[in-house]
Amino acid sequence: MASQPNLIADTVLNTFRRLPKRFKPRNDGLRREWVPLAGIVLKRDKIDNEDSNQSQECVALATGMKCHPHAKLPSFHGCVLHDWHAEILAIRAFNRFLVDECADLAAGTLGKGSKWLQWRRDARQQQPFELQPNVSIHMYCSEAPCGDASMELTMAKQEDATPWESNDATEVSNSDEELLGRGHFSRLGRVRRKPSRPDAPPTLSKSCSDKLALKQCTGLLSALTAQLVRPEDVYLRTLTLPASEYVPAACERAFGKTGRMAPLVANAGVQDRWKASGLSFRPFLVDVTDREFEFSRRDLMAQDGEADEPVASNRSCLYTPRQNEVLINGVLEGRKLHDPKGASLASRRSMWASAHEVARMVGSPAASSLLERCQYKDLKASETLEDRERVKSDARRLALRGWVKNDGDEDWFLEAEPS
């Protein structure tokens, strides 16, 4: 029988393999493309004498490896994805899956009910839905998350491991409040922005390592989904990486209790304050698989070591059992960047519109802010999210120092047509 990490990896990889060709990187003999893959698996844990072949399903996966520069964000009006690195897009796809499950439960169209979600038994002043009991959440990534968890791997790939020089003051400052990019390899345990070429426009999108580290505090729910689904149980239990991408010291430093997140463990006052909201610091276990993704750069090179090195794919895909799409530059393939019809199903605007409809159907007090006629920035600052925002603030102040918010795409109304 395959090991648990291999089962998680196989569940994601096999789901991807069943997707149509247009969801995959090009490999036509003339052009070979590679791309990172990430997926989220829901698994029903064994109960009493239940069959050891527990039910599990890949409910979200994504490929991708790019993000937009900070200067572009104000023109997006919630229609364009800021960051579509595979790990982050997979989490957005997972939230899309949950909102769609909520919608069908609210509409009563699921017959016997959802396989993974249920109405909350005690819905007084609470989110109306919750994950079913004995369900755990697992993630597979074909690459080590960019940022702190992959710094040793990044260094090893350089012909010259000397950090890139930069004229950017945030790169060379000695302050603890900086936001590093790909350079300055010796400075480990730090919050970093997404890696890019030195001549690329600056981005304030944090690395996947940083975003996953913060998810250990808030859980996987977005601000929108957290007003519909009870957040206490929606935490990642394991993160599975290929053996070739796993550096134990790097993962412990990036995510573990003894690494940069240690101040959260040591500060009992913070943990007590978080308990009121049901949130806490819950580090996931990093598992290792011997499976490789056939569109990883490593696997393509191993298939034909004499061929030209594969190039990065500009195509990204998003999948849930209910919906899927192909994206380029954070919008639907074939659509222009500022075309409202090109909005991804996981974009801010699409997610708010769907969550708004669920809130209208269920009439939950906790989800009432989703119905308010306000700008997106006001929604995220609503009273129902105060505890969640406090957890994020504490985590950034104590453990993820130097986190700079990637603001700029908040000043828009759901009802207004994007200009």
From TrEMBL:
An annotated GO BP: tRNA wobble adenosine to inosine editing
GO molecular function: RNA binding; tRNA-specific adenosine-37 deaminase activity
Pfam families (alphabetical): A_deamin
Residues forming coiled coils: none
SMART domains in UniProt: ADEAMc
Occurrences of domain A to I editase (ranges): 60-413
Protein name (Swiss-Prot/TrEMBL): Adenosine deaminase/editase
Taxonomic lineage from the root: Eukaryota, Fungi, Dikarya, Ascomycota, Pezizomycotina
